[in-house]
Amino acid sequence: MKPKKKKMPGNSNSKQNAEVEFSYAAPEANEVYLAGSFNDWNPTNLSMRRDPQGVWRLRVVLPAARHEYRFIADGIWNDDPRACAYVPNQFGWCNCVVEVAPTGSQGGASAKGEITKAPDALEQRSQSRINTE
Questions:
Q1: Hey, what domains does the chain have and what are their CATH numbers?
Q2: Residue 94 and residue 96: Cα distance in Å, rounded?
Q3: What is the pLDDT of residues 73-98, one digit of tens each?
Q4: Does residue 125 sit in helix, strand or coil?
Q5: CA dihedral (77, 62, 45, 32) positive or negative
Q6: Helix or strand or coil: residue 62?
Q7: What span, in angstroms and rounded, lies between the C-alpha atoms of 18 and 68?
Q8: Torsion of Cα atoms, 89 then 86 then 4 then 34, to 10°
Q9: What is the pTM of this model?
Q10: Is 95 helix (H, G, I), strand (E, B) or coil?
Q11: What's the confidence (pLDDT) of residue 123?
């Protein structure tokens, strides 16, 4: 995910929103969607676009909060290996987490936890899977 600070014009809560870019590398996939707590886990309404390198991308404006999400590639639910954290879900797997935090009066919100394969997050995910089986 690549967070961008963004002030939403005409929105009184603009300091509470951030544009977050979700990305998922799946060069062989025919279609990839994003589903999460921010869209009621709808598996088909947030379609991602593939770039020439086979990375699927989508920018979503999210309110300041902790959001859970997963990717759906060709009908199969997948983890984001770059997520800042993972939490167990009711299906015995884990949801990925992105946190959007307000930055105060000087600007918009920012997404927290931009990482690349953080070992502690992967360990947390591994433990969550073990504890839910």
A1: 2-132 (2.60.40.10)
A2: 7
A3: 999 999 999 998 999 999 999 999 99
A4: helix
A5: negative
A6: strand
A7: 15
A8: -40
A9: 0.70
A10: strand
A11: 40
pLDDT band at 1 (very low <50, low <70, confident <90, very high): low
Alpha-carbon gap, residue 121 to 98, rounded angstroms: 12
Chain centroid to CA 79: 10
Q: What angle do CA 9, 13, 49 make, to 5 degrees?
A: 65
Residues paired with residue 112 on neighbouring β-strands, in sequence order: 99
The number of C-alpha atoms within 13 Å of 67 and in the hemisphere containing its C-beta is: 29
Burial 50-76 (b: 16+ CB within 10 A, else e): beeeeebebebbbebeebbbbbbbeee
Helix (H, G, I), strand (E, B) or coil at 127: helix
Task: Indicate if the pLDDT at residue 14 is higher than 80.
Answer: no
Model pLDDT, residue 26:
96
